[in-house]
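During the practical work, I selected for study one protein's amino acid sequence and its C-alpha cells, as given directly below:
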Amino acid sequence: MKRIAAKYVYPLTSTEPLVNGFVEVEEDGTVVRTGICEDPAKESVFLDGALVPGFVNAHCHVELSYMKGLFRKGTGMAGFIDQINELRDTKSLEQKVSDLTQAMDSLWEQGVVAMADISNCDDSFAVKARHPMYTRTFLEVFGTEPEDCGAVMEGVRKLKAVADGFGIDAAPTPHACYTMSPELVTAVSVEGLKSGFLSFHSEETEEEEEMLKYGSGKMWENRIKAGMSVPPVTGKSSLLYFIDRLLQGHPAPFDEHILLVHECCMDQEGIDAVKAVMNHPFVAVCPLSNLFIHNALPPIDLMRRNGLKVCVGTDSLSSNDDLRIVDELFCLQRNFPEVPLGELFTWASRNGAEFLSKPEFGTLEAGKKPGLVLVDHLDAEGRLTASSKSHRL
C-alpha cells in the first residue's frame, strides 16, 4: 500500500478539499482511504499541489491530431469548416495514426483516464483497443441531402461493426443540425440512443443560430453556394430544433445520457426544454476551442444557476493548440473566477465519469480505481496558474 499526501486533496465527494490531506492506495491503484495528515512534516511523500481523481475528456476528436498547427484562428465556424474541408486527409494513414497515438499517450500521462471521442472513420480503433485509457467512441455522421439518409445509415452501421470487431464501445451519433438533413438527425439519433448514449454539437456559434432561426449568415451562404440542402428555417434555436428531431423518433422522457457539446448560445428557453424531456442531460464545454474558432465562451453562470452537469473537453488539435484538461480549467477559472476550483475539478472528473457511466472513476473513494493526478503550481490561495500542469502518479 502507498500513502501520498499533498497540500490539497480533492476526493470530489464534495467540492471542498482536504487541506494537508492524504490518499492511501493499493499497488494496483485502488483507493483505500483519504484523510487529513496529523503532521504533514512527518509524511514520507508530501506534494505541493492538489491531488485529484483522474480526468475525463468529455469531448475530443483524437483522429484529427494530424491537423495540429494547420488552422487559422478566429475564422468563425464557416471559415473553420472551409479549412477542415481543405486540410482533411492531407497526411498519410501512417502519420495520422502516429499523431493520434501520441495525443492519446499525452492525455494519459496528464492523468486522463477516460474519453468521449468522436470518430468519422476507423483510424483510431486499433490504438483505442490496446490503450489503457477507456474510450467511448461516437461514430459521427454527416449528410445534408434527405435522399442520402439510408446510405449514410448503412455506412455508419458498417463502421460500428468494425469498432465492435476491435472490442471498443462505439455507437452512431449525429454531428450537428447544420450538417444533416432533418431525416438523418432523427434516424442516427434513434440508432445511437440504443447504446444509452448520444453526443451532439449544439449551439456552438451565433452563425449556427442565424442559420436555423433566420436562414441567413455565412454558414447558410456557404451551403447555398455549394449546392447543398440547408436545414429548415424554424425561427427557433438549433437546440430546440434538435429536441424536435429527437421527439420525431423517440418519445419523451429520454433516460439515456445525452451530451450537448459546446452550447455557447444556450439560453433559459433551451435549458427549460432540455429539462422537460431529458432525465440525464450533460453539457461538454471546450472553452479553448471556442476561443480559437470564434472568440466566444459558453454561458457558464446560466448553466450553474440551472444546475446543469457540466463536463470538460479539449475538442481537437484542429481547433486547439494542445489537448490539456488543466489548460481548459485555467481558461474557465480566468473567465469565470467565481467558480471554485473543486467545482472545476468535479466537471473535469466526476461529471465526465457519470456521463460515461463509469462509477469506478471520478472520485477518490474506497474501493474505486479512478487514477491519481497531481496538479501543480497552484497560487497562494490554492488556485490554478498559467504554469499549472497535471501529472499521472
Q: What stands out?
A: The mean pLDDT is 96.
